Amino acid sequence: MHAQGILARSVPRAAHMSLLAVTASVPRPLRLLTCGACGKIEAAFTVQKGVRGPQKLGWQGLRSFSLPLARPFEASRRDSLGLKRGLSSAPQAVLTAPTPKVGANPEMAKQQGYEVISEQFIDEYNSTAILYRHKKTGAEIMSVSNSDEKKVFGIVFRTPAQDSTGIPHILEHSVLCGSRKYPLKNPVGELLKSSLNTFLNAFTYPDRTCYPVASTNLKDFYNLVDVHLDAVFFPRCVNDVQIFQQEGWHYELNESSEDMTYKGVVFNEMKGVYSQPENIMGRFSQQASFPDNTYGVDSGGDPTVIPDLTFEQFQEFHQKFYHPSNARLWFYGDDDPNERLRVISAYLDSFEASQSAKESEVGIQKLFTEPKRVVEKYAAGEGGDTGKKHMVYISWVLCDEPLDEETELALGFLDHLMLGTPAAPLRKALMESGLGEALVGGGLDDDLRQPSFSIGMKGVAADKTVEVEELVIKTLNGLVDEGFTAEAVEASINTIEFSLRENNTGSFPRGLSLMLRSMGKWLYGGDPFEALRFAKPLEAFKERIANEGVKGVFSPLIKKFILDNTHRVTVELQPDTEKGVKDEAAEAERLAKVKASMTKEDLAELVRATEELRVRQETPDPPEALRVVPSLSLKDIPKDPINVPIAVGEINGATVLRHDIFTNDVLYTEVAFDMSTLRADLLPLVPLFCQSLLEMGTKDMDFVELSQLIGRKTGGISVFPYVSSVHGKKEALSYFMIRGKAMANQTADLFNLMKVVLKDVQFNDQQRFQQFVSQRKSGMESRVVGGGHGVAATRMDGMLNVAGWVNEQMGGLSYLNYLRSLEKRVEEDWPAVSQALEDIRSAVLGRKGVIVNLTADEKILTSAEPHVSNFLDAFPETSGDRTCTWNPVLHRVNEGLVIPTKVNYVGKAACLYDAGYEMDGSSYVIQKYIGNTWLWDRVRVSGGAYGGFCDFDMFSGVFSYLSYRDPNLLKTLDNYDGTVEFLKNLELDDEALTKAIIGTIGEMDSYQLPDAKGYSSMIRYMMGVTWEQRQQRREQILSTSVEDFRNFGSSLEYVRDSGVVVAVASADDIAAANEAKPGFLDVVKVL
Ligand SMILES: [Zn+2]
C-alpha cells in the first residue's frame, strides 16, 4: 500500500491501517513521501505494538534521535515542555465527554438541498452521525457531531488510474498550487505560516485522493475548509500548463547545446521512491496481485512512465473525477452541523450531476487459480555483501467477494495473533530463523477494495529466499494444527479491545482516523457506519471463541484465506549493482532521442520556456495576492497557556503527581526513578537494559508468557530513560521511567506487572541478548545513513553539555561504537555483561527521589493509591551509594563523520547562554521564522537540500543549525553564518510579524490527548517550569518585535564565530572541505 502525501508533517498512520491494526506491530513502512512543492521532509514511519507510540524519523524527530527508545505516547522531550509546544485545551475535552450535539436541523437541511440517507447514534464514540445526499449532484456527506474540539473535515474522490503516469498524484500536488479564490503559488504554505491548524495534508492512495484538515479553532477550521474546497473544485492548474510542468514533468533545457533533462516535483519524488528497495517490492507485489484492475498500475507514478502524460489527459482526469457526484465529504467535531451543510452548498450547488461515480468504480480482481512468482531487480550499492541483500515478499489477496463483518474482525485478530508482538509465532519464527535481517510486509491490509495479507524478509542470502517462503508456510501449517494458546488469544483480545476503547491516535486527529476507517467501506458502496462500531461484533466474536474454541475459529481461517488460497504472489527482489547505471543510461538515451527529433526552432522555444518557468518560480506572489489567504488575528489567540490540573502529594516517601482528567476509564501512569546515581560506564547499556526488562522473562515465565500476561492484563508497559538539561544548571536531569496504562479495574494488575518487570526479570538469556545487540547495531547504522542530522545534533550536544553527553552515550556515535564492541563481549564474557545489567537495576531502583505520575479522573486516582503504595514498598529506601555524578563532555572539535552517501547532513551549534543571551520567548518566533524563510530559501530552494532548519533548546541554551539530505557542505555552513546579517537587516511589516507570532502559538498550543497532557505536566514539574514562567514566555512571544529579530541576529554571531561543526557526509565531500580549509574537520570513519 502506498499513499503519497503532500506534507510529511503529520503522517496518517491510520491511512494504512484497519480498524484492528491499530496495535499491529510488524513495522508498517508507510511510504508517505514528501512533496516538494509544499512538503518539508520525508517521514518514515512505523507503528509499534502496545504502548509505544509511533517513531517518526525525519526532522520532527530531531531530538528524539538522541534517545534510543521511542518515546511512548508521542510526548517527546521538546513536545512535552509547555514552553515550546505547550498544552492544549480544557481537560474534559476528549471525544467521549458527555452531551453530544445533535445533527443539523432537518428542515434546514432539506431546504438546502440535502436528503438524509441514515442517522445513527454511535455509542462507541458518543457521536451522532448523519449520512446525507446532496440531491442535485449525488455527493454524499457524513456529518459526525460530538464534543471533540479537534474538528475534522475531509473531501475524498475516487481516482482510479489507468496507467502509471501518476495522474492522481500529480493532480493532488497541482490543485494545491492556487485556485479561483486563492490565486497564489502556494496557498497551503501561506496558510501554514499563520494558521492554528493541527492537521493539513493531502494523500494519494491507489484508488482515491483525500484532502483532510483539522483544527481546534473554529475560525481557523473554516478557513482551512474553504481553501481546500476551492482548491479541489476550482484549481488553476487545469488551465495553467506551467503548474502541470512544475509539479508533474517537463523537459528542461538551459541552452540549446546542453543535454536535456526531465524535471518536475512528482517526477523527482517518485525517482526517490523507486530507489528504495522496500518501496519497489511493495509495488511489484501489488501490481502482480491485481493485473486486472486499477491496482495493477502505480497511481503515484513510475518515473519511466510519467513523461508519457499529456496536459490534456491531466485536464480530463480532473474534470471527470474531481466532481461532487464522485465526492464523499466528512465532518467531525463540536462545530455547528448546520453551518457545515451551508458551507459546502456554496460549492456543490454550482455543479450538475455527472456519471463520474460510475466511471470511478474499482473493479474486482478475480482470484488466481495458481500461485505466481515474480523475480525483479533493484539498484544496489557496491559496498557490502550483495549476496545477502535479497528480499522475499509473499502476499495473498484474500477474497473476491465482500467479507462479512465477523470474518473481517476475526482476520484482524488472526493478524495480531500471528504478527502483533515479538512473542507472536509467525514473527518469532522468522526473526529467530536467522534467515534475514528484518521482517517486511505489513500483515493484513484491508484498505483497498479486496483485503490482502503479506509477509517477508529483507537482508536474505541469495540461496535462502526459498527457505523463507517454506518457513512461512511451515509455521502457518503448524498454527492450523496446534492453534494458539488461550493466553495468546486473551492477550490479543485485551490489547485490541483496549486500543479500540482508548482510541489513542496520538497527535493524529481522532476524527480523521475515523474518516479513513469509514472510507474503507463507504468508498466501495459499503456501510460507512459499520467501521465506526466495534462493541457488538466484539462481544459476538468473544462468544464465538468461547463456544467453538480457539482452534475452531482460527484454524479454518488460516486454511481458507492463506494456505489453500491460490491467489498467492511471491516477489523476490535481487540486488543489482549495475541497474542504477543502466537506468540512467536508458533515460539519457530517451532524452537524446527526443532532442534529436527537435528542430532548431523547437530547441530555442524550449530554452525560452525553461527560462520562463524559472522566472515564474522565483517571483514571489504580490502582497495583495497573499492578503486573500485568510489569517487569524492576535485577538483570536488565547492569552493564557493551556492549563493541566496537577496536585502534588506523597506516598511512602515518593512524590506523587495526580492529574484529574477525564480519560474514559483508563489509568495512565509513569514511575520515574532517579538515574543520576548510575556509574557513567553503564550508561550505554541502559537502552538494552530497558529492552531486556520487557523481552527476557522471569524465573517463572519465559518472555512469551510475560509478554502475553502484559497483553492480557494491561494496555501496555514500556521502559525508557529520560535525560535533559535544566535551565541554569550544569548537571543533567536524568530519570529511568516505566510507563503503563490499563483500564481502571486492571490497576492492581498493572502495578503488579510493573513490579515484576522491574524486579523479577532475569538477565540470563545470552542468545536473546545477542539478538538485541545485533538488531540495535544495525538499527543505529541505518539511522546514521537515513537520519544523519539527528546523529550530528546529538554529537554537537554531547560536546556542549552534560545531558547531551549522556544522550550521546545512549543514542549517538559513542553508542554505536559501544554496541560494536559489546557484540564481542557478549560472546566472550556474558557473565560480566549480565552482571552489569544487574548493577544498573540495583543502582537505579530505589525509592529515593521517585516520582509517580497518575493521569485519570478523580475516582480512579483515589482508588489507585493503595496499589501505588504496594508497588513502592517493593523497592528499598535508598538505591546503592548515591555518589555518582557525571560531568564529562565530548572533546569539542569540528568533525566529519564519513558514511557512504550521496547526500550530507551538516550541523553547526553553540550555547547562546555562554555568550550572554538571556532566555526569551521571542526566540521561538524567530527560530521558526528563520526556518521558514532564510534557511528554506538558501539551504533548500537554491541549495538543493531536502531540508534546512534550526533549533534552540531553551534549557541548555544550544542553538543548532542542521541540514537534511544536503548536496553541499561548506556552502551550507556559509548560509548558516549568513543568518546573522539576514536578521540584522530584516525588514518585517506588521502583518508578517503577526503571522509569525500566531504560527508559533499555534504550534505551542497543539492538541494533546489526556495521557500526553499528564506526561507533559510531569516533565514541567521535573524541570521546575512554573505556570508563571509559561505565562511570561507566552507574553514575550505575543509581544515579539522586529527589534528582537535584530538582537537575536547579534547573538547568533557567537554561533557563527565559535560554533562547533559536525557533518555526516561522504568521504569525498569531507576531503574537499578539508582541502578548501586545511584541518577544518577531524575525519572519523563511521561506516
Ligand atoms: Zn507527492
Automatic annotation (TrEMBL):
Residues 573-822 form the Peptidase M16C associated domain. Its cofactor is Zn(2+). The keyword Hydrolase applies. Keywords: Hydrolase, Metal-binding, Metalloprotease, Mitochondrion, Protease, Zinc. InterPro entries: Metalloenz_LuxS/M16, Pept_M16_N, Peptidase_M16_C, Peptidase_M16C_assoc, PreP_C. It is found in: Mitochondrion. The keyword RNA-binding does not apply. One of its GO terms (cellular component) is chloroplast. Its main location: mitochondrion. One of its GO terms (molecular function) is metal ion binding. PANTHER family: PRESEQUENCE PROTEASE, PRESEQUENCE PROTEASE, MITOCHONDRIAL. Belongs to the peptidase M16 family. PreP subfamily. This is Peptidase M16C associated domain-containing protein. It comes from Marchantia polymorpha subsp. ruderalis.
